[in-house]
Amino acid sequence: MLSEEQVDTFHREGYLNGGAALDDDEVDVLRDELDRVIADQDREGVPQPVRLINMNRSKPEEPVWQVVNIWEASEPYRDLLSHQKITEEIAQLTRASRLRIWHDQIQYKPARTGGVNMWHQDAPLWPIIEPMTEVSAWVAMDDVDVENGCMSMVSGSHQWGNHIEFIKGLDGYDGMPDRFEDHDVEIVTRPVRKGEVHYHHALTWHGSHANKSERPRRAIAIHYMTEESRFVASGNHVMKPFVEVGDGELMRGEHFPLVWEQE
Ligand SMILES: O=C(O)CCC(=O)C(=O)O
């Protein structure tokens, strides 16, 4: 459980390191499962994730491998979704009484060549659900630091609203200005040690620089929804084909499992 001070810090900054969640053996299992799912890609009769792609379309030689819903292909990842510490802490941060999985995303930057994850806000890129109050748990499967492409966050930016069009217009990863509207833009690098969980709000401006190190940089982001999350049929998203409810209805269904409920 998080302390009141940690919860306050999250609400002020829009992100928080929640500390150790997995031990080395648990991380080893997840690393092996990631290798297996990649090796089994498109193998007939073997459960598959929703998507496995190199997100860096403009520079494919600097890959950022993304696997969406690896939990649908791997039991240990499925178990991770309902990890007690992580779900209880997400419930504290969202003040939810029920949590569902929106989707998960492996974020894998290989050693030496791993590319940039451009600045963005998550919620505007998820236009098929509202409200924009989701919180994500990002679990490191390597020591992730400035050398191998850790995330950076803009402090307090989750309180500024939806500015995805402005962020998309930035001139590259180094193009973040010092000021935006009447706010100072303070960029904070967020190293996360292997097995730790880091939380961020879905409106927090964030991204990550390239991995030029000799070490891989593997992590999984688990994106949680609360009992308030509703389907917005006008939007588009890779998870849209799996939605089984009508426009404006509360999200539910087997691809969006319930993973925590207040007792
Ligand atoms: O791992 C990264 O570099 C970015 C992850 C991210 O954007 C997210 O979890 O929302």
Classify the secondary structure makeup into a structural class.
alpha+beta
Q: CATH homologous superfamily of the domain at 4-78 and 105-127 and 141-219, by name?
A: q2cbj1_9rhob like domain
Helix share bin: 10-25%
What proportion of the residues form beta strands (DSSP E)? 25-35%
Number of helices: 5
Largest sheet: 8 strands, antiparallel
Using only C-alpha atoms, the radius of gyration works out to: 18 Å
Would you give an account of this structure?
With 263 residues, the protein is α+β, with helices and mostly antiparallel strands. The protein has a domain of 177 residues: q2cbj1_9rhob like domain (Jelly Rolls), CATH 2.60.120.620. It is built from five helices and 16 strands. The strands form four sheets. Strands 1, 2, 3, 4, 7, 12, 14 and 16 form an eight-stranded antiparallel β-sheet that branches. It has a four-stranded antiparallel β-sheet with strand order 5-13-8-11. Strands 6-15 form a two-stranded antiparallel sheet. A hairpin with a 2-residue loop joins strand 9 and strand 10. The structure holds 2-oxoglutaric acid. The site of 2-oxoglutaric acid (AKG) has 10 residues, from strand 7, strand 13 and strand 14.
